Amino acid sequence: MPHFTVVPVKDQAPSCYDSLEGINWVDYRDTGQEAPDHHDTVSSDGAGIHKEDSPFLNSSDSASKKNDFYDKNLALFEEELDIRPKVSSLLSRLVNYTNITQGAKEHEEEESAQASRRKTPKSPNMGTLMGVYLPCLQNIFGVILFLRLTWIVGMAGIIQSLLIVLMCCSCTMLTAISMSAIATNGVVPAGGAYFMISRSLGPEFGGAVGLCFYLGTTFASAMYILGAIEIFLKYLVPQAAIFHATDPGSSDSAMLNNMRVYGSLCLSLMAVVVFVGVKYVNKLASLFLACVIISIVSIYAGALKSISHPPEFPICMLGNRTLVRDSFDVCAKTVIKGNITEPSQLWEHFCLPGNMSTAQCDDYFIQNNVTEIQGIPGLSSGIIKENMWSDYMQKGEILEKVGLSSVDAHGSVETFFMYVSADIATSFTLLVGIFFPSATGIMAGSNRSGDLKDAQKSIPVGTILAIATTSLVYFSSVVLFGSCIEGVVLRDKFGDAVRKNLVVGTLSWPSPWVIVIGSFFSTVGAGLQSLTGAPRLLQAIAKDNIIPFLRVFGHGKSNGEPTWALLLTGLIAELGILIASLDMVAPILSMFFLMCYLFVNLACAVQTLLRTPNWRPRFRYYHWALSFLGMSMCLALMFISSWYYAIVAMVIAGMIYKYIEYQGAEKEWGDGIRGLSLSAARYALLRLEVGPPHTKNWRPQLLVLLKLDEDLHVKYPRLLTFASQLKAGKGLTIVGSVIQGNFLDGYGELQAAEQAVKNMMEIERVKGFCQVVVSSKVREGIVHLIQSCGLGGMQHNTVVMGWPYGWRQSEDPRAWKTFINTVRCTTAAHLALMVPKNVSFYPSNHERFTDGNIDVWWIVHDGGMLMLLPFLLKQHKVWRKCNLRIFTVAQMDDNSIQMKKDLATFLYQLRIEAEVEVVEMDDSDISAYTYERTLMMEQRSQMLRQMRLSSAERQREVSMFLLHFQAQLVKDRHSLVRMGSIYSDEEEEIVDIPAEKVHMTWTREKCEAEKKIRRKAPENFRELMSLKPDQSNVRRMHTAVKLNEVIVNKSHDARLVLLNMPGPPRNNDGDENYMEFLEVLTEGLERVLLVRGGGREVITIYS
User: Fold this and answer.
1) Cα separation, 771 vs 753, whole angstroms
2) Tens of pLDDT along 375-409?
3) What H or E segment, with its residue span, contains residue 958?
4) How big is the CA angle at 238 (ends 234 and 239), to the nearest 5 degrees?
5) Which of 473, 293, 479, 472 shows the shortest CA–CA distance to 379?
6) Cβ(467)–Cβ(442) under 8 Å?
């Protein structure tokens, strides 16, 4: 027996379908897996014999159909003219245009490193009283109670004041209920409200509202400082004023300047105290709380004492006008000194110097008497009846007491400073904004959850009890002030009528100084608390890293103190100090706190309605309706107190939200907004399931089939560029790719491929979804993508795939067979198809076409895709300045003039601006060039078919030989190499044999068979030379050549040419000829988009 030496040689020929654009095929199969079936072929079921129902037009008569089918110039489309009629046929039946058919892995980040650095007690042991109740009382009671509540009662009256208190306290109570539910649904670390909102509503809402809460807390510190300075300059040490009024009318501006100077000094001193050590602030907290409680108790004691012994604070009245008491000593026009009647100090203020009989006095002073009334009549005086109703005033209006006799006379301007007047215009809405800060501070307990023995119990109980207590104090204080104090004194904001005493101090017992000193220290303490908490809140936001420009404020001293955040807080608080008016700062921080409370209620409502599995709060007394009511009240209070401040606060929050959305770090906190999005998406998808979209709503929902190279890089990124230009961010885009191999072994590669595709989508600005599948055969993977991509009504209706470049130069038919199979699948699925040819020449998103044309060659009507696509492309900046030209083909028996008019009318009805041209094609004879080209095409097909047959026989011989070495090959798992090809009908695994010599014994029969094959080769060559082309192929080639000549003649310089894509032959034997026809049809064109409709109308003339 002869011995043959067989040395396997690796095929060095380039694979033609490596350049197939638009589909991914990367082989990640394990080398030891089972070989695929070698006899798998393209199935002709389904797409090959699929018969579409015509959705466009009624069937024409058989004569016209016969002419359509067998026209020489349209032979390329003849098999589809029953469902895709000629344009001339369409236009002739649609002159009136009335027959158109209408048609997530990251969990919540634990701040373990931060927690380890933070000094915490060994075991939390604070109860409800010390841990929640008293801190909330200290934060809720503040400057408004002592400085403005009496004035609010005087202006609004008891009834409206009770309504104001009820609105504000109800809002905070409902917010506390929602906050208790959120706080008891897990541990709330530092950050309080920010943490609750961000983890419930996501980083965008959390960051926006967190910053609003921070700004509110910062402005609160400014408000408390301004309150303390007002007490200091008005009631404690008035002599400390630096600026003094040069005339009576400039006293307000002098006071504001004093407030600015002392407020800035106080802010600096407090910032130094906070910087040196927070522990000193915490140690003084008990003292400040004691001051608040003592002051409130003194108010109640004074009210009870006023029943029998009301304090002596006489009010001097001129007529019914209230006089500023510190400008004179005796409330009378004259005084008697040694039996001599002399003018009093009051007289000297209203009259010019001179004899009493000849003196020139103010008319109002002369005609009205001076009387003295009791400023604090007492609880049993019945003054409550007079104070029941509102008495709002305009700026500069003099305080008058209803019921006192008065002669209306013109008074002198020079004496205006002697009367007590309103410094600002008042209204119900203004008073709401001023009072609301006195109801804030309900988050103090939730911020201390780490120090509580039982936070799940203490936070709800302590917070709700604190709000109930403060609400009771406010309600009772309103009633007591209205029952004990004269109305003009209540409306006197700064106590000018009671010798510059603090109005609430006049009611207190044993002395007004108890209230003055107590309120001063309580406001200083509240300012320190705010100045301590605000930087830590900003630090918590900065450390979450959701707002890039705030990262620097996450750093601080070695002990964790937020130095940079404290500096920023001081600067922002200084802005509030420079406003210098407590009444103007209060509504600002009301906006920020109301917005924070609004989102706390929203967070609770969203979590409750979504029934999130993790939503299991221990606090059971909540309901989504209460949360929505609280949210509505917050929104109403924002616009009631100051609609323009409300809009500014919302704009600030909205800008922060959008900034975080576009620039912030990606966070997955399991927030409720994500669950809300899922619920909304589910609802929308179910709605979309009702039926297919109407023609007016149809837009291309793309499935882009991409190809990756062996390094998982997108081979043709311009496909994504084209998709982004066509979609302009609208509609659905799914980018699909196929990896050949075993899913169990290739999951890691699948994830890497998905990430590569997503990165390229981000670069090309494609907003959509990525879908990569692993399949044993790439052709089957493509079919799976076409069938299963999308969900419910959000499914693709258009497939975008690339052209199989180099298919002519390859002996392997797998590239173009997979391409044609995909075309058949899209047709079977009633999907539209777009094939960008020469896509590497397509423009990038950074290019601009300043001129040029987009040419549409409308040969057959397939739903209007050719009209819609250029309109969509022109919406993008790349194609916007291109002109649209529409060409259609007329035969010899067509009226081309009428066709042009009809087409122009049709485009006018479609609201599409385009130039119209009808190209006439004569019935010329088939040229020799066409005949020769068809002959060469069929000879090449026959030759490649014979070469594949002989190659298959040799392959079977090698396969038999390989069976002897199967055991050795299994041991060497690296002996199988990845195929260089992509789309294989057989999808074989090529085996790389070790390079050593292998001996094999051949039989005589095998040698004879090999010689017989070699002798048969010349006979096959002679058959090729005598081959005659098929007449149907000749007619199709004639159509392709003629159309190509016309298109190149008219559109050789066009920026883009859109062309009807003929369907593949129903007989699979002509697949290779079909590819040749398409090549001939598009020769000489730089950018071509082959378009194939999906079987339905996509554009309509109706509104």
Assistant:
1) 10
2) 999 888 889 999 999 999 998 889 988 888 888 88
3) helix 928-962
4) 170
5) 479
6) yes
1071, 1103 Cβ separation under 8 angstroms: no
One-letter identity of residue 608: T
User: Are 852 and 1083 in contact, with CB atoms under 8 Å apart?
Assistant: no
DSSP for 766-831? --SEEEEEEESSHHHHHHHHHHH-SBTTB---EEE---BTTTTT-S--HHHHHHHHHHHHHHHTT-
Both tokens assigned to 701:
């929902």
> Cα dist. 257→94, 238, 423, 714, 1038 in Å?
82, 14, 16, 67, 94
Kind and range of the H or E element at 171? helix 149-183
- Tokens at residue 394, please? 């305009």
Give me the amino acid identity at 738: V
* Bond from prior residue into 510 cis (ω within 30 degrees of 0): yes
- pLDDT tens sequence across 822-846: 888 988 888 999 999 888 889 988 8
Rounded Cα gap, residues 916 and 952, in angstroms? 53
Place of tokens 């010599």: 997
- Both structure tokens of 736: 């699909």
Q: How far apart are CA 543 and CA 551, in angstroms?
A: 7
Q: Distance between CA atoms of 897 and 907, rounded to whole angstroms?
A: 16
Q: Which amino acid is at 486?
A: E
Question: What's the pLDDT tens digit per position in 597-650?
Answer: 998 898 889 888 888 788 888 888 999 999 999 999 999 999 998 888 899 988
- The residue with tokens 């959120």 is 182
Query: Could you tell me the pTM of the whole model?
Result: 0.68
Name residues whose C-beta falls within 8 Å of residue 340's C-beta, 6 or more positions apart in sequence. Answer: none
- SS3 sequence, 724-738? HHHHCCCCCEEEEEE
CA-to-CA distance for 24 and 781, rounded, in angstroms? 10
Which residues 6+ apart lie within 8 Å of 352 measured at CB?
A: 359, 360, 361
Q: At what angle do helices 251-276 and 278-305 cross, to 10 degrees?
A: 130
